[in-house]
Design brief:
Blueprint lengths: L2 E7 L7 H7 L8 E6 L12 H9 L6 E4 L4 E3 L3 H12 L3 E10 L2 E4 L11 E4 H6 L9 H11 L4 E11 L6 H22 L2 H27 L4 H23 L1 H7 L5 H11 L5
Parallel strand pairs: 1-2, 1-3, 5-8
Antiparallel strand pairs: 3-7, 4-8, 5-6, 5-7
Helix pairs in contact: 5-6, 6-7, 6-9, 6-10, 7-8, 7-10, 8-9
Length: 278
């Protein structure tokens, strides 16, 4: 069986250093590994998103399976071997490994039941050629998995294939962009696939945000003497967002949390305008 590695990189390919090093220590060395430029901002490369980059690069591969990996991960020594063993024993056509998020003070298990991460995604080349990854969704990975499930293809999670994702982004702006992207992707999944498990939560957060901001506006306009109540509602909204972000990003999340209530509103606006955010 021939297994090829594709590594989509956005702007900075130096983030793949740990990944390339971990590939050299695999118990089953992949047949080929290739870095694919993914929407780099120098404007000289044609790919505007990860799905398009993978679809294009796979056309030039003669492998049996493609394994797509995010540049900012490192792999356990048995990663490639575990995927090959699962393909041979279970006949999987596509799927994911287990993604562990690495943070300074803890490591926790990611949710990969129906979501495959670029750190652990594999798919049969013939299947990818006949059914390319959709390019119209921000979270193309989950969108593709749902598409394959609906078409009754054999997919699954390989528990022994473990990838370690490096520490989350430390820039407040990058954290905000990531959260907007998650909400926008969840709403797109709800529209395209009726994926209630992903989209309803974002829809509820959006509705709650709009309701509270509308209520604040009403209090400000028609009941000036109720400013303390309006400030208290705003404080509760922002405090709730700050706590959620703090659990994931630490102290920086407290700063980002002040803008957290606006995130789903921006996500809905991007969906309406058919824009995407990195």
């Amino acid at each position: 069986m021939k297994l090829d590695i594709l590594i989509p990189c956005h702007n900075d390919c130096t983030t793949a250093t740990q990944l390339l090093e971990s590939l050299n220590h695999q118990t089953r060395i992949p047949n080929h590994a290739e870095i694919v430029h993914n929407g780099c901002e120098n404007g000289s490369l044609p790919f505007s998103n990860k799905a398009r980059a993978i679809n294009h690069a796979s056309q030039h591969s003669d492998a049996d399976y493609i394994i797509s990996l995010d540049a900012d991960v490192r792999l356990s020594p048995f990663f490639v071997e575990a995927i090959q063993r699962a393909i041979e024993q279970k006949g999987l056509e596509a799927g994911s490994g287990i993604v562990l998020k690495e943070q300074p003070d803890m490591t926790y298990r990611g949710n990969t039941q129906y979501i495959y991460n670029g750190a652990a995604f594999f798919v049969k080349c013939d299947l990818l050629a006949s059914k390319p990854i959709p390019e119209d969704c921000v979270v193309e990975d989950t969108d593709y998995m749902l598409l394959l499930r609906k078409a009754k293809h054999k997919i699954g999670t390989v528990a022994d294939a473990i990838a370690y994702e490096q520490e989350r982004p430390t820039s407040c702006w990058r954290i905000i962009k990531r959260q907007i992207r998650y909400h926008q992707g969840a709403l797109q999944l709800l529209r395209k696939n009726r994926a209630w498990r992903y989209g309803v939560q974002s829809l509820f957060v959006f509705a709650a945000s709009v309701f509270i901001f509308a209520l604040l506006g009403w209090l400000a306009i028609f009941a000036v003497n109720m400013w303390p109540a309006s400030l208290a509602l705003a404080g509760l909204l922002f405090a709730g967002c700050a706590v959620l972000y703090w659990q994931e990003y630490g102290r920086k999340g407290l700063v980002v949390g002040a803008l957290g209530a606006f995130v789903p509103i921006v996500a809905v606006s991007l969906c309406i305008l058919r824009k995407r955010i990195w």
